[in-house]
Task: inverse folding
């Protein structure tokens, strides 16, 4: 049976056709989310037509925002102009006569890595996506955690320091307010002024990639910034390990590409701070599917007909 | 069918006989844990004999320490002299021919409150026991979280502030290192010197109960200390709410008796810091079973034959 999978991002819509766990074909189109929800919905309807032509019978859609996994209702997805609350499942099923399942994109990411990536065969998985936002999700005892309003797994908003920097969520000192892209860049911009010798002063705009390049060239400030990044990530992981006692922690998202630059610092914090650290034997690893993880997850979600409760097998 | 339940504490061993969810009879004996593991095990064997005489066929035992819920192996329970690692299930089954199930006491507490107390009928529950230690456990999607080494739910050791006070676990700034009994008392001892007018200066030894009494008499420092307590608890709950998106948060343990003195401060933090706080509608309530919660949980664990995986119904 062919299953379609869609990953709706702020910039692009990715979609692909799966059969027997294989991604047969993958495409992308610009999301043009700034042009408003009607434009995005029209594009998704076109994707359904494409799926129809390909002989797809069932579709999984990964969406940002608050998603009711049963009803397929999506609320306030960030970046999509004018989208308050839409029953996307109904909208896409209506014209296409396809069977559509809608899942939150962070959860789709977790499902993808858990079932087809770094978390294969594990029952207790914590996944963090490190990028503009810090997101993720949790599998505990072979079950994806959803929570009452399906908003569980907001690991970017665990409190690292209650009087820490302001986060865009309104809180102070969230994990994201330290290691989210923008915050990490701001930290570098602030610090480079204090280190006039740093290579970072050759750049007016700073990105995690530039900080990584400079670190690889031996720039001390850049190395320091990655160590600090790793340290703060580690503090967040201590909390998650004490709460979930996971087998594996998977790091994905753009910044995870610099894994080698921060991981030693992270592991050192775990060694120092996690109770019974050695006995637990928790692994911290890189995600394996890259940007395709949410696509694989959306596929899996459709495969099990949205029945995450039974998705442990 | 009669089921026996045991709750092994540092000071006392509580035990009781249940039938059809009713606690028919309850007893307690001193644990004398300082006299060593052999004394405690002997006492537990005597309890099994008592159960045998009462016509009990199955027993649940709540134990402190790291418990393997399948094997019934208990490691390093705090306060029991000389206990490294014992297969308590085997030991108690051998002589008695009873069917014995061993569960960690914090998990027993959660099971008890979830099935028979404040969490009845809920699927997403976070429970904290506030006392000498800060413990607890989590039910997510109708399932008790255990984790890889059955050490999940260590909510007392989520990080509130990475450079905060030293915790007995070796970390800094754990939730417990602020609101655990001893830390809370130390804070009061420190602060009362700065407030010579405070009623707390009438006492040389300070306990949470004394701080509560002084607060009720209008003592400003004591009121401040409870507000601070509530605030820090709130910061911890923000993290837990963002991760679990629970329906209900249940507070138990000795200090929870002062619920009225700290809860407003806690709720204020949640209102200020939790994303989509109103939409979630999460309740924060007092535990209902008091000290009997672990007994009820141990009973339930035996009732379902230790099969927590299927305990959602």
Result:
């Amino acid at each position: 049976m062919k299953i379609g999978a869609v990953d709706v991002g702020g910039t692009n819509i990715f979609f692909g056709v799966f059969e027997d766990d294989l991604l047969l074909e993958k495409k992308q189109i610009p999301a043009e989310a700034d042009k408003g929800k009607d434009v995005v919905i029209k594009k998704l309807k076109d994707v359904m037509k494409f799926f129809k032509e390909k002989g797809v019978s069932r579709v999984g859609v990964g969406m940002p925002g608050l998603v009711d996994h049963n009803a397929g209702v999506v609320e306030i997805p960030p970046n999509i102009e004018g989208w308050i609350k839409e029953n996307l499942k109904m909208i896409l099923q209506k014209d296409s006569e396809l069977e559509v399942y809608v899942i939150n994109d962070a959860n789709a990411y977790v499902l993808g890595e858990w079932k087809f990536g770094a978390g294969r065969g594990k029952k207790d998985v914590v996944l963090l996506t490190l990028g503009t936002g810090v997101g993720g999700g949790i599998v505990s005892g072979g079950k994806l955690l959803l929570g009452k309003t399906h908003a569980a797994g907001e690991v970017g908003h665990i409190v690292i320091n209650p009087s820490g920097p302001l986060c865009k969520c309104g809180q102070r000192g969230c994990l994201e307010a330290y290691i989210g892209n923008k915050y990490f860049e701001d930290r570098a911009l602030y610090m480079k002024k204090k280190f006039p010798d740093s290579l970072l002063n050759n750049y007016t705009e700073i990105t995690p990639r530039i900080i990584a390049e400079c670190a690889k060239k031996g720039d001390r400030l850049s190395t320091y910034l990655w160590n600090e990044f790793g340290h703060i990530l580690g503090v967040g992981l201590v909390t998650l390990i004490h709460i979930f006692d996971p087998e594996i922690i998977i790091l994905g998202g753009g910044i995870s590409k610099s894994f080698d630059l921060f991981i030693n610092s992270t592991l050192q914090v775990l060694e120092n701070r996690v109770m019974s650290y050695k006995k637990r034997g928790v692994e911290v690893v890189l995600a394996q599917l890259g940007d395709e993880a949410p696509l694989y997850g959306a596929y899996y979600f459709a495969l099990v007909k949205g029945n995450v409760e039974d998705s442990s097998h």
Notes: Chain B has a mean pLDDT of 94. Chain B has ten helices and 13 strands.
